[in-house]
Design brief:
With 213 residues, the chain is an alpha+beta fold. It is built from 7 helices and 8 strands; from the N terminus they run H-E-E-E-E-H-E-H-H-E-H-E-E-H-H. Helix 4 packs across helix 7.
């Protein structure tokens, strides 16, 4: 079931590794089907380079396994809490990309210093409080703290992004790492200049309504 979504979620998981947004088996992507509401998640501990679409696990939002023989990701409860709380979200990425996670380790939000940041996110990248792995605590803190952002840095942990599907959430995961890297370099050079909030809103509006085809 949900063969197309399983193919997509598998491909996005594999791309997290190829784009250097994580290492080994640390991180995951999921997607929610718009018709059934079922969620496709990565199996726990399976190396990304060995993932196949048929390995993906289908669960309902209450964590009941609908299809699949492997154990789902240990972050499944985090993903499901977000899906239950955010009906607009149909894709979630959890990564440990180096620069963004360095900001998370320091519990530092990323201000809007760059037009690319304003375009993609329209606000600073917020920080969520530390929460233990494995239950719903991380998901609860993400929902509480993410606000209007599509990305959040979880203290001492890593990065979560949300979107209208797995591909959109992946784009945000890649962009937050790029923004974090450039911001880190700028901080070594001196004192980056924040973009005024009004201009951030204008840039984000232009990008989301007029950019592309």
């Amino acid at each position: 079931m949900l063969e197309a979504l399983k193919e997509l979620v598998c491909a996005v998981n594999r791309r997290l590794l190829s784009e250097h947004l994580l290492v080994q088996t640390c991180g995951n992507a999921s997607g929610r089907d718009r018709e059934s509401g079922y969620v496709v998640v990565k199996p726990s501990g399976v190396p990304f380079e060995k993932l196949k679409a048929e390995d993906m696990i289908v669960v309902d939002v209450n964590e009941k396994i609908i299809e699949g023989t492997l154990k789902p990701s240990v972050d499944t409860r985090t993903h499901l809490y977000i899906y239950r709380s955010r009906p607009d979200v149909f894709g979630i990425i959890h990564s440990h990309s180096n620069y963004a996670t360095a900001f998370a380790a320091c519990a530092m939000p990323i201000p809007v210093y760059l037009t690319a940041h304003a375009d993609e996110f329209g606000c600073e990248i917020p920080v969520g409080a530390f929460a233990p792995i494995g239950e719903e605590d991380i998901g609860r803190e993400i929902v509480r703290s993410i606000g209007s952002s599509k990305a959040i840095l979880m203290t001492n942990h890593g990065v979560f992004t949300v979107g209208k599907g797995p591909a959109e959430a992946f784009k945000s995961a890649a962009m937050v790492e790029d923004v974090a890297k450039t911001t880190f370099i700028a901080l070594q050079l001196g004192h980056p200049k924040p973009i005024p909030e009004k201009m951030v809103r204008q840039l984000h509006e232009r990008y989301t309504t007029r950019y592309g085809q």
